[in-house]
Amino acid sequence: MKITVLSLFPEMYENFLKTSIISRIIDKGNVEIKIVNIRDYSLDKHKHVDDTPYGGGAGMLMKVDVLHSALINNVDHHKTYAILTSPKAKPLKQKDLLRLSKLDDICIICGHYEGIDYRFEKYVDEKVSIGDYVLTGGELASMVLIDGILRLLDDSISKDSLKEESYINGLLEYPQYTRPVEYNGDRVPDVLQNGNHEEIRKFNLRNSLKETLKYRPDLLEKRQFSQEEKDLLGELINEL
Ligand code: 6GU
User: How many domains does the chain have?
Assistant: First the structure.
């Protein structure tokens, strides 16, 4: 997979790309990441990349000519899937990361200032927000995208651990424990130590449902339940 990032702050990526898990996935060789400085495509001698909005209003907008030049000089716009980071978009979900992880060639354009000239949007295939809040720029959002995509390409993450993960099956993951068996009076639940796989499965499913009910009840509204899950949910609701 090839990922090209267009950014006004390329230095923000240095440590991110050097950090262990990400650099290991990149070093394995199937991923190439290129960070492009948008300012290099400025068309005037003062290297402007932004300008004031027509019609007035606060803040500056990124210039369409600069953005378009950065795009077409770095990717083949027929082959490359162009993603614009923006708080004005549908928030990213795990299923989006799965879909994007199957592409060969993507370009992430990091928005900045109060936004971009609207005319640039016709050169992008998709806009992505990472949540309902506002950041100063798209760089952190692009790193969220890259991290979330690369870990899905990594064959060292077992398919089982992906399957059990929060958001994949529409439930939050159940609590887990490792040694020591007792810490400050808190013990690892006995059932997890007894080796009865059916009891463990049921215990973990019940706790997944419990965590989801507590922190993300909205996820339960969208989901189809098995009879076993309905029974467990009934018990949990009675306990409230
Ligand atoms: Cl992608 N960009 C900015 N600037 N703010 C955001 C965002 C993106 N996603 C959530 N907030």
Answer: 2
